[in-house]
Structure formats: structure tokens, C-alpha cells
# Entry
Amino acid sequence: MSAVFKSVTDARSTKSKEDTADSGPDKKFRQRVLILSSRGVTYRHRHLLQDLSSLLPHSRKDSKLDTKSKLFQLNELADLYNCNNILFFEARKREDLYLWLSKPPNGPTIKFHVQNLHTMEELHFSGNCLKGSRPLLSFDKRFDEKPYLMVIKEMMTQTFGVPKGARKSKPFVDHVMSFTVADGKVWIRCYQICEADLSKKDAKAVENGEDEEGKKGGKKSATTRAQTEVSLLEIGPRLVLTPIIIQEGSFGGPIIYENKEYVSPNVLRAEYRNRKAQKFNVRNAQKVGREVKRKVLKLDKHRVGGGGGKDWEELQAGLKDLFDE
Amino acid sequence: MAKAKLRQMLAADKGKVPYLEKQKKLQKEANKRKRKLAEKEAEEEGDDSGDEGLNEGGEGEDWEDESSDEEEERVIDVSRLNDSDSDSEGDDDEDEDSEEDEDEDEEMEEPKLNGKHDTSKPTTQDDEEDEQEEDDEDVPLSEVDEEDEDPEADIIPRQKLTIDNHSALLSAHASIALPIKKSTPFSLHHTLTTTDPVEIKDVHDDLTRELAFYTQALDAAKRGRAALLSEGAPFTRPTDYFAEMVKSEEHMGKIKDKMKEEAAQKQASADAKRQRDLKKFGKQVQVARLQERQKEKREMLDKIAVLKRKRAGADLGDAHEDDPFDIAIEKAAKATGRDRRGGGSGGPPNAKRQKRNEKFGFGGKKKFAKSGDAMSSGDMSGFSSKGMKKNSFGSGKKVKAPRLGKSKRQGRR
# Structure
């Protein structure tokens, strides 16, 4: 008995080995993502992190990174956890969020600015999906138009696409992640796929009609497939990414792409503040001008009620000067 | 030739070995010559040999031409560097138009553009050649501007240039790209690209934008579903398959509550709106209803009067006529069921009721109704001197017995 078992298991093991050998590309498709953030994230950033890690079963969440300057440390960290993708959220000033997408040890790094961030918690969308089901990734055609977008697409595919047979993944597909390029930004949405059978009466009528026509059972499956109606429900989260730079190495190396259109939020804020300050400045200038005028007219000496003849003469002289100017 | 000397000096300044550079240039020249020869041979096979000599002479000229060309090119480059919107694609197009022969120079364009920002160059195999050439061609902006002999030109503000190193980007892409071919099963990668680029008219209009995203995702879902089903991969979750969801029960409950609340709010607002509308027309409706009631009442009274008259006459008539009469009165009673309570069977209320109504209410001004005025105080109709003499029992006849004498009163005790 044991011999039989052994032979069977042997056969199986050899078979599985062959399988792995055959599915050489499978190894290439194996992905693992390290998700972590810097210090100083707000609760929304934290919730986004949570949402993403719940959507990506092949991810490894790690504690916050202490440094914001020595990001190359992340490479070692990724190596430690056997991760070949890094999703690093860097928060600045407790309001700006930057997303670093990298492929350690030597792949490119993309830095995004995250805007219009809405987490699942606050969005109240009625969609829901299995934890760990593999998403369909839908990309805009624009991603193939420019090299930097191609790189972004590839990185997104590898980070957000759950590899087949990932540890905690489920075999069914019930959600779509869509990536769209618009306005120089990448917009990310996540939808649940709802399959609704058409009402049974309709289905029966259709089937009967087709039976009368004399179609065979083999085609029935196709017809039933056509009968389910696919619709979508949004799950969340929502975010918009503005690419800033692409580096050739992983958290290092030369910059091979830089977005000219990107304006730092700091600059924007400064401009806003300056515009507000303009009012004050104008008023201040007026005040100074008024004082100067008063001095020229020697009005600072001249008080109401205390007007002497001399003062009056002075005033007249001052006025004359002013008009002469 | 003076320019060539200048260039040499520049190179020396930068710490370059002129010998190596020269060698490189010569190599380039040789390459070019070879190529040209090959072209010529291809074109004029079987032509005179005398032409060749001419060609060689031409090449000698070419050498000089080319060097001057390079100078011009550099000037163009400077202008490009100064240009704020350095769209690399447009530059590429220009290059392709202007110089068909010099492929190598074309390749150099991109690194030259970004050379200002990062001196350390990408070290990929493809770019190695570019790098070498780039080193000997790249002149810092400040040095070039010195030729203008304009002191203020030195203080050029650093303008932001777009770095878009296509070759480096493509090589980076190639190094990480997944080996997805047409033969790879869809279930392995789950990646779909739309057939047409997604067009959004106004990105800031939420509705159109989200609709575009939705249609993109829906299309992907349909295509992906078809692909997976045709491959025989599992797609739909069976109804009896339960597992942890991304959103917890608690969260979904919250969402449900929220939706309910929203629906209730919507309902409430719709109701309120309806009420408001009703109120607007309420007055008219009320007036109409009152008039209707009045009319009904009048009709009823008429009917009853007719019936009464009939009854008075019916006493003389035979019994046969009674039946329709009874029915009629029943009907009338039914119809007036509501009015009955108020006014009895029609007609004004009795005198007492009227008086009381006047006094206590039912129409008219209530305030000061009971207080006296000049008329009431001057009204002496209720007074009689007799009344004053009446005892408490009301009869004037029974007069109080006169007071008895003292002895009698004491005797009583």
C-alpha cells in the first residue's frame, strides 16, 4: 500500500515539478508588494493604506519608516521581506501625500503626488468584494502612447495585479480596477462586478425561441452567458496620481523623466498666501503714502483748533510746494 | 578654423584629452565615409571611375562642411536650451527633417537636453555610445553664453526643463516588463487595455468624468469575463461560497444605514414639497369646499321642505304613495348625516341658544362681551324699588317681624 502511495506521490511531485518547469513565466509573474508609509501620515492616509493592503493580498504591510531622506533603506527592507515591489507613502506637512512606486533592487522608481484622496470608509459606496479576489486591471489606451506612461502602466500592473495563485488570493473575479490618464494625471477607481441574470421569463422565452429554431445544447452555455447582465458598483478608494519624476534605479539613480506640468503644493500655497497678503501690502503702502503727504503738508504739527497764523502760512507754503511738484 | 581652435581650448579647459576626441571624430568620419561610399556604390553601379575621384574631392569638402555644421547645430541647441517649453518630441521631428544623414547626432539630442540636470548618465547598454558622444558635445550653458559678450547673459535664470529620456525609459520598461504575449493565458495577468483612448471632455465635471471611468471599467469587465469564461477559469462566485470581504459587515451596515437615511430624507423632502404646494392652493380649496357645503345644505333644505309639503298632502293620499316617500326621506337623512348635529333639521337655533351664543361665543367679538358699557349701566329696566324691599326669599309680602320689647325678649331666654 505504502509503495502504491509512494509511487502516486512521486508521480505527482514529478508532475508538479514539470508544471513549474513549464510555467516558467509564472515565476516572473510572481509579485510581492511592500506597503508602508513614512511618519506623519494623517488618518486618511492610514486608511488608504489599509484599503490598499486589503485589496492586495500579495502585499506585506510594514511599520512606518522613520526617515524621509534615506529612502534607499527601503531596498534592504524589501529584500528582507522578499518583496519585489514597494508602495511607499510619504506624507509631508501632514497634508501632502506622495506615493513612491518602486521595483527593487534595480527597477525604476516613480514618484507621484496623491490628490483627491478618498478612502473606502468615507465614500459609503455600496460595492464590496471578496478579500483577496484578483482584480481585472483596466488601462486606458493612452498608457501605450508615451514611454513614461508605459513604465507607469507596467509598474501599476505588477503592483496592483494580484498574481495567480498568490497566498491569500481567492479564485473568483469580482472587481475591476481602472486606471485612466486624464489631464496628465492617473485616475484610479475600483468597481465591483455585479452579474444579474435577466428575468427568468425572458430567459425562458429566449431559450424556447432558440429551441424552436433548432439550436443545439452546445450553444446554450453561450446564450446563458449572454443572458447575464454585467453592471458595476463602485467600491473605493478613489485617488488621483500626478507623476512627478521617474528614477532609473530603485530610490536612486538618474532621473529619466520629470513632469514639467507638476507644481508643488508648497508653491501653490505660497502663491495663495501672497495673493492674500497683497491686500495688506497695498493698504500699508497707502498708509505710508498718507503719512508722507501729511509730513509734506506739515499737517502733523497743525492741529484743529490750535491753528496759529504761522502754521497757516506753513501749510500754504507746503501746499504750494506740493502743487509745484 | 579659428572656431576649431576655440573648441580645442574649451576642451582643454574642461580637462579632456584632445587626442582621444580627435580619434573619435576621425572614427565617426570614417564611418560616414564608408556609409556614403556604400550608398554611392549602390546608386551608381557600373558608372565611370572618374566620378570616384570627384567624389573623393567632395568628401574632403564634406569634412569641413560637417564641422561648420556642428557649430551651427550647437547654436541651435543653445536656443533650444533657452527655450522654456522644450518639447522633446517636437525636437525629434525637427531633427528628422533637417538631418537625414547624421543618425548618430540625432540619437544624441535627448541626452543633450537633459544633460544639464544630471551629469551622471544612465548606464544602460543602449546608451553607452550616446554617453561618449554626449561627453564631447555637451557644453555647459554658461560657457556657451560667454561668447555673446553680454555680461547680463550670465545671469540666466534656471528654467525648468522637462526630462523625458525616451531611450532610458524604454529600456527601463523592457527590463521590468512581464512577458505577456498573445499566447499567455488571460487568467495569468488579468490586464486589459481599452481599444480607444478614453476621452473626457471636461475633467472637472464629476458626472462625465466618472461616467467615462465607469464605461471603461464596464467594458473591461465584460471583455475580461468573456476571456476568462472562454479559458474555463472560474469567474462568478458561487452563492454558497462565503469568505471574508473587503468591507466588514459592520461597515456595510453603516453604509446601509446611510442609504436608508438618505432615502428617508429624500422622501421627507418630497413630502414637504408636496405640502408646500398644497398649502399654496389650500386657500382656494377651502373656499371651494365651503361653497360646496353651503350648496349641499341649501339643496338639502329644499328637499326637506318639499318632502314636508308632500307629507302634509300625503295624509289624504293612499298608502301606495308612502313607499317612495319613505325611501326619499331615508336618503335625505343619510345624505345629511353630517349636517344634522349642527343645525338639527335646519332652521335657526332656539332663542336660548342664540342668546347664549351671543354671550359666550359662536361668532363675533369675544372680548369685552361681558363687560358693561354706557348703555348697560344706564339700563335701569331690571331695577325696581320693590325689589329692594324684598327679603331673601324673594317675596315682598312676608315682612320681618318687628323687634319686641325688652321684657319680652328677656322673658324668652
